[in-house]
Amino acid sequence: MGMSVTISAATEQDAEQIFKLQYLCFQSEAALYGNYRIDPLVQSLDSLRREVAGDCVYVARLGDEVVGSVRGSTTEEGAASIGKLCVHPRLQGHGIGARLLRAVEAALAEERGATRFRLHTGHRSEGNLRLYRRVGYRTVGTFDSPDGVPMILLEKPAGTYVATA
Predict the structure, then answer these.
(1) Per residue in 124-156, pLDDT tens?
(2) Residue 123: which of 27, 28, 21, 29 has the closest Cα?
(3) How many other C-beta atoms are found inside a 10 Å radius of the C-beta of residue 32?
(4) 42-46: long-range contacts at Cβ-Cβ below 8 A with a sequence spacing of 24 or more?
(5) CA–CA separation, 95 vs 104, rounded Å?
(6) Beta strand 79-87 with 116-122: parallel, antiparallel or unpaired?
(7) E-strand stretches of 11-148
(8) Cα separation of 131 and 133, whole Å?
(9) Contact (CB, 8 A) for 7 and 60
(10) Mind listing the domains of the chain with CATH numbers?
(11) To 10 degrees, what angle do helices 15-25 and 45-54 make?
């Protein structure tokens, strides 16, 4: 490729690229569940812009192209919710997702006082589950999402950075 992928906080100018990337990346999840109404596919660009403005959002860039993103927000009790982690299909399997998670976790802990992190993924999403477990997340429960997909809820305490390789 000749360029390295960099991780940085997203800006409002990134919203449209994140929106398109999210739509591309979550197609495989939708196919896995036979459900194309999952939240990342039906989210509006305006809603995503509000998240970029108010939440902790990080992107992975290859040159000027956004090739990955993740979002996080905190609750009043110190928990951080992390979601919509995605990496362009052509770049998956190279540690970008783990780097994005580490960046958003660090920012949520340092800037927003998060003491633990929570995220969820569909019960059939083995690649996602492998990544999350590899970086220290443990299953703490299950639930059905509003779109009907059975989800696995995972959590880890802040400051838990496990090997990403």
Answers:
(1) 999 999 999 999 999 999 999 998 899 999 999
(2) 29
(3) 16
(4) 43/19, 45/15, 45/16, 45/19
(5) 15
(6) parallel
(7) 56-62, 65-74, 79-87, 116-122, 138-144
(8) 6
(9) yes
(10) 5-114 (3.40.630.30)
(11) 120
Region of 52 (left: φ > 0; alpha: ψ -120 to 50; beta: rest) is: alpha
Q: Considering the chain, what is the average pLDDT of its residues?
A: 93
Only one residue has tokens 């039906």, namely: 42
In three-state secondary structure terms, 99 is helix
Is 0.85 topped by the overall pTM?
Answer: yes
Token pair in block for residue 130: 């492998």
N residues, the chain: 165
pLDDT tens-place string over residues 48-96: 999 999 999 999 999 999 999 999 999 878 899 999 999 999 999 999 9
CA nearest neighbour of 70 among 86, 51, 81: 86
The whole-angstrom distance between residue 71's C-alpha and the CA centroid of its chain comes to 6
Residue reference for tokens 């660009």: 45
Name the residue among 24, 32, 57 with its Cα closest to residue 151: 32
